[in-house]
Amino acid sequence: MKQFHEYQNPSLAVDLVVFGYHDNTLSVLLLNRREEPFKDCWTLPGGFLQMNETFRDTCSRILKTKVGMDNVFLEQLYSFDDLQRDPRGRVIAVGYYALINPARFSIIAGSMANDVKWFNVRKMPALGFDHREIFQLALQRLKSKILYYPVGFELLDELFTITELHELYECILQTTIDRRNFRRKILDAEYIINTGTKREGLQNRHPELYRFNRKLKKNNFQININIS
Amino acid sequence: MKQFHEYQNPSLAVDLVVFGYHDNTLSVLLLNRREEPFKDCWTLPGGFLQMNETFRDTCSRILKTKVGMDNVFLEQLYSFDDLQRDPRGRVIAVGYYALINPARFSIIAGSMANDVKWFNVRKMPALGFDHREIFQLALQRLKSKILYYPVGFELLDELFTITELHELYECILQTTIDRRNFRRKILDAEYIINTGTKREGLQNRHPELYRFNRKLKKNNFQININIS
DNA sequence: GCAAAAGTGTTAACGCTACACCCATGG
DNA sequence: CCATGGGTGTAGCGTTAACACTTTTGC
């Protein structure tokens, strides 16, 4: 029998769909490649797995080195194994998506010049490799996840108003949701806690500030959408 | 820069959770290993990915050679990348689950002697590697999938009665579901088509036979469970 | 006719949608 | 005191859960 690592194995990469929410817009972080293949094309940030790394480790390393982010929400999406997906050879990619609050990091089209840029998810450029497929799966996953799991908090500040959370939901789901029904749903589910403080300095009534309830009980949560 | 495949890469394997339904019991196919590691332990069927294969190809090859099955429902579960998950070295496994109708295949504890056996999912033995984790994720996925997608048909015969489908749901979800409400839900969703024929030779009223409607419209399907 | 399972109908309770209304704030 | 958005309440509708009843078959 052959020794274990004498078999030829495909290369293993991680590709990241990094979602950020800012100014009522859901965006994804893209890199403009300097090298072939897909030179000068936009692609998802990604990198190869090293022997002593888990996928999460690789994701963290990429996020840290390429875009200066740390300690973010990460979830595995799917593994992409098409034989032709990388012109350099057999590369299998494990897709992950990350949710980050752009306000926490300073690289909004910053340090890496034109290399790194946020793109509105509704105005995506052509992507290299099979990254469009990965991106679309990530967006779809985010849409369904937010309906039954409190994932939106990763995209907002520590303290937020219900209106801000409401706008986030409308933005991600691309629908209108009744403001008052949304409020009741979210409060009933006990996903958020009233901090007692209010957002000051607005022209009108100061809304109450909430934070995410990390000790939530059960999955008694289901946003229903009104399509109109 | 190094050539592409000179990097050392982890080995890539596929592990399969093969579900079968028979006699009102949901079962999983396990193999008793002849070799180290985990010699004489029960494990999920699995195998290494070859350079010219997709994961699905690998799954099909394993199903065909190890248990003689062909052309079955397959879905990717998750990729397992713990550094220590295989004592032989770094092996990354992509979990898949399959749904099969045991009646279609003859290897119910057959050709491979004591090697291959169905286990009731409620009475699983200890499993080698991290296979218990993979199995549990598969079972959980099946449970949630069956609530919104007509996946149960893969486990039944071509023609089936509503009662049989109902029993399948109760078995997988481990609850009781009101017979009459279940019938209405399933019929309203138009997931099944009345064939006009009836199951003959029973002691009581002959139930109508249905088959799966492959041209279903939309995801207007949601089984709700009554826990009692 | 009886037992057992299949098929059909009904009702009451609940949850959701679609609203109207009041409140707080700055200008 | 007006404009603007935040906060609260509620009526009506639709869906669902929880049932009872009838039908068909073999013995």
UniProtKB/TrEMBL annotation, chains A, B:
Keyword Cell membrane set for record: no
Entry GO MF terms: hydrolase activity
Keyword match Ribosomal protein: no
InterPro entries hit by this protein: NUDIX_hydrolase-like_dom_sf (IPR015797), NUDIX_hydrolase_dom (IPR000086), WH-like_DNA-bd_sf (IPR036388), WH_DNA-bd_sf (IPR036390), WHD_NrtR (IPR054105)
Keyword terms of this UniProt record: Hydrolase
Top-level lineage group: Bacteria
A Pfam family matched in the record: WHD_NrtR
Protein name stated in the entry: NUDIX hydrolase
Protein species of origin: Chitinophaga solisilvae
